[in-house]
Specification:
The complex is a heterodimer of chains A (215) and B (248). Chain A contains eight helices and two strands. Chain A has one domain. A two-stranded antiparallel sheet of chain A has the order 1-2. Chain A has 215 residues and is mostly helical. In chain B, strand 4 and strand 5 form a beta hairpin. With 248 residues, chain B is an alpha+beta fold. The radius of gyration of chain B is 22 Å and the shape is globular. Chain B has six helices and ten strands. Chains A and B meet through helix 4, helix 5 and helix 7 of A and helix 1 of B.
């Protein structure tokens, strides 16, 4: 990353692995469970959060010296809600199809703990550029997990990826279904998202012992 | 030493200022874009109605509407009549498709009010389609549909949509693999209205049996599926007298 100093590139790279918002900080779990039954929904959600967190972090960072500390959480919530609503209105007017696709996600973006978490933990104490990088990094870290979970849940639950039947037709018994393979309907339900996230956490911590906490 | 931003006066003034700025920003955006958004919704209704009667640009497995710039013209071409049924009386109304079903359902909670039921009559290749807009409840929020029927209440096509069902699960009611199953299903059974049940146990995943009043449910979306069943049963039932008259 020639463009960024070592410290700045750490802001982007850390949340991708060793300080991942989902697997290490355990934030944003709710949406990770709710919308990962399909890969496409995971990707749409990831892009939305990337945008909101990037812009929101910059806005909060610019306002950081004038926000009264007593009501800072309310201010953060107002900023993110206003941002999301305005984007939604603009999409409804100029990209109606896309806005229909996103409609369900709007509420989920506002309540995503990662957004409030980064506002609180980073943007309130850092300049706009670094806050922007932090926002992008954390959203990307969130995106990686969402996409991994979405990939496995859609593949094993529905036998498709992005809607394309990659394993054959379960009803006509073609592809792997011909030899007796069955889709696992349980993968489509939220508890399996939790288990997949748990498996990712396990793999990650067994590869990097430094991440294991002692109690 | 306490900071300037810690004082109560500052906090209250900041909160006030923020509310005014954000409030007016949102009001300004909503008001400024209202017209375009309403127009988009109007076009979408026309696209939905045409979709139900098979005027669409479906490719492969994806559901595609008639394009925005052509929909007005196609709507005029194919939709021959727009009716409003109220209290058993049938009237023509050239903008019946703009009737807000949600509002009508709310008004109908008052027993003195008899609901206005819009019905659109389309014609394609000499065949008549009767398209009814219906609305119900899914798991999280509203679901609605446009159902095209022939004069015997056999479904010829359907378009389902929802406000906030779970992506990948309940939201799949607007996917073709679900909507297309309704085509050919009979809403009547031996002369009485039975509706169509979204069934988890009909043992007919390919939906070959068109006389069982059942379609195959989507895994993981039981409540949305039950909502579809309930919506079809309660809403389309209201149209039965019209179809009975039609056939007599």
């Amino acid at each position: 990353m020639g463009l960024l100093s070592k410290k700045d590139s750490k802001l982007i790279l850390d949340p991708l692995a060793d300080n991942n918002p989902i697997t290490i900080q355990v934030l944003g779990i709710c949406s990770a469970l709710a919308i990962t039954a399909q890969l496409k929904a995971s990707i749409v959600m990831s892009i939305s959060v990337l945008f909101v967190l990037g812009v929101g972090n910059v806005v909060i960072s610019l306002l950081r010296n004038i926000i009264p500390s007593k009501i800072r959480i309310i201010v953060q919530l107002t900023v993110v809600a206003a941002l999301v609503i305005i984007v939604d209105l603009v999409l409804k007017a100029y990209a109606y199809e896309l806005s229909k696709e996103l409609s369900v996600f709007v509420g989920l973006i506002i309540t995503n703990c990662i957004i409030m978490g980064r506002f609180e933990a980073f943007a309130l104490g850092n300049g706009p550029w670094r806050s922007f990088l932090d926002g992008i990094g954390n959203a990307a870290g969130y995106a990686i997990i969402l996409i991994i979970v979405g990939f496995f849940r859609e593949l094993l639950g529905s036998g498709t990826l992005l809607g394309f039947p990659v394993l054959g037709d379960p009803i006509d018994k073609t592809g792997v279904y011909a030899i007796g393979y069955e889709n696992n309907g349980f993968m489509l339900l939220s508890p399996m998202a939790l288990i997949v996230v748990g498996l990712i956490i396990w793999v990650q911590r067994s590869r990097n012992k430094a991440l294991i906490e002692d109690h | 030493m306490s900071k300037r931003t810690d004082s109560n006066i500052y906090t209250v003034l900041f909160a006030l200022g923020m509310v005014i700025v954000v409030g007016s920003l949102l009001a300004f955006a909503a008001e400024g874009l209202k017209e375009t958004i309403t127009e988009n919704k109007r076009i979408e209704k026309q696209q939905n109605i045409l979709y139900a009667m098979g005027i669409n640009e479906n490719e492969g497995n994806s559901a595609n509407f008639v394009s925005k710039d052509r929909v007005g013209e196609e709507f005029k071409n194919y939709i021959k009549d727009q009716l409003v049924i109220q209290n058993g009386e049938v009237k023509e109304d050239p903008v019946a498709y703009l009737i807000d079903i949600k509002k009508e359902k709310d008004l109908a909670k008052n027993e003195d009010y008899s609901r206005r039921l819009p019905l659109f009559i389309g014609e394609k290749d000499g065949k008549k389609f009767y398209i009814a807009p219906i609305r119900g409840k899914g798991l999280w929020d509203a679901i609605w549909a446009y159902v095209a029927m022939d004069e015997n209440m056999v479904v010829q096509g359907a378009y389902f949509d929802h406000k906030g069902e779970t992506p990948g699960l309940g939201a799949n009611i607007k996917e073709r693999f679900f909507m297309d199953d309704f085509i050919g299903e009979n809403l009547m059974s031996n002369g009485t209205f039975k509706g169509i049940t979204v069934s988890k146990s009909n043992g007919d995943p390919k939906n070959e049996d068109k006389t069982d009043n059942e379609v195959d449910a989507i895994a993981g979306s039981t409540i949305t599926g039950d909502g579809v069943t309930a919506m079809i049963r309660s809403e389309l039932k209201l149209y039965v007298p019209y179809f009975n008259n039609l056939n007599n």
